[in-house]
Design goal:
This protein is an alpha+beta fold and 293 residues long. It has 2 domains: 12-110, Pseudouridine synthase I, catalytic domain, N-terminal subdomain (Alpha-Beta Plaits); 125-261, Alpha-Beta Plaits, CATH 3.30.70. It contains 7 helices and 10 strands. Strands 1, 2, 3, 4, 5, 6, 7, 8, 9 and 10 form a 10-stranded mixed beta sheet that branches.
């Protein structure tokens, strides 16, 4: 009997680190992180893993902790397991236990010192705006409908270009963050209009709590000519958080992917799995008023 207990203890002391590439529809959840109340992506995923590997406590760590309502097309997460399931079976096994709002695209084995969050070199998000007069039922769950004015995307692009580099983005940080500072490096920014649809992509080494949605809120207000480009720049450069009041709704935001020095999920990461929408006809609102002096 003692020998059997020892053998079982030795088996449970050995673990394998598994990395997952997954998608989820954010409206179903209170965010990535497990909460005391509400359904979280982390909580649902951990419960599903525990059914398959009940030999040790399960803690799933993600590359980015998305807020309530935010979607993910290429979230990366890891957990440690010590059960008999081979790595190539984890994706299908989890998808059989997860709700349709979460899908695991792939699972691979990683070294014990690899970390989904700390090993990441960037995260990339896309925000989609539907800038037309009339609503569209099929775009509503995934976009922010702005119908008052046709957004001035040229002015918005100018504002975005100034964000590139390493800066203090305190103006775009919601209260409640436990970060020691508000510095991060914006590596790439892209804004593209396709008819009545605007897609804004932002890639950075990391993001502050609520950063993208606050930034989008300011960009949209700028695009509607509610204030000037100099006002936008003064607000974030001088860290005037109290003046940053607009925030884009969560439903328009999607975590596209996380990147690593050692490329993982290369085949999946090589293409964009979150669709770019296209409409055959345009229905633009009126042009915005003149920019205030």
């Amino acid at each position: 009997m003692p020998q059997q207990q020892k053998a079982k203890g030795e088996e449970n002391s050995k673990f394998q680190r598994i990395a997952l590439n997954l998608q989820y529809e954010g409206a179903s959840f209170c965010g990535w992180q497990r909460q005391l109340q509400g359904l979280s992506v982390q909580g649902v995923l951990e419960d599903a893993i525990a059914e398959l590997d009940p030999y040790r406590p399960i803690n799933v760590v993600a590359a980015g902790r998305t807020d309530a309502g935010v979607h993910a097309a290429g979230q990366v997460a890891h957990f440690d397991c010590c059960g008999p399931i081979p790595v190539y079976r984890w994706a299908n096994a989890l998808n059989g236990r997860l709700p349709q709002s979460i899908r695991v695209l792939d699972a691979i084995s990683r070294p014990a010192n690899w970390h989904a969050c700390y090993s990441a070199t960037y995260r990339r998000y896309r925000y989609t705006i539907y800038n037309a007069r009339r609503p569209n039922l099929f775009l509503e769950p995934w976009t922010w409908h702005k119908y008052n004015y046709r957004l001035d995307e040229a002015l918005m692009k100018q504002a975005l270009e100034g964000l590139l580099g390493h800066h203090d983005f305190s103006a775009f940080q919601r209260a409640g963050s436990n970060r020691p500072n508000a510095f991060t490096t914006v590596q790439d920014i892209h804004l593209e209009r396709n008819g009545d649809l605007l897609g804004i992509e932002i890639q950075a080494t990391g993001f502050l709590y609520g950063m993208v949605r606050l930034l989008i809120g300011q960009l949209v207000a700028l695009g509607e000519h509610k204030f000037s480009l100099s006002t936008f720049e003064r607000r974030w450069k001088e860290k005037r958080r109290t003046e940053v009041k607009e925030s884009g709704p969560a439903k328009g935001l999607c975590l596209l992917r996380a990147g690593y020095e050692d490329p993982i999920f290369a085949q999946i990461a090589s293409f964009d799995s979150f669709p770019k929408y296209e409409l055959s006809r345009s229905d633009p609102p009126i042009d915005p008023p003149p920019i205030p002096l």
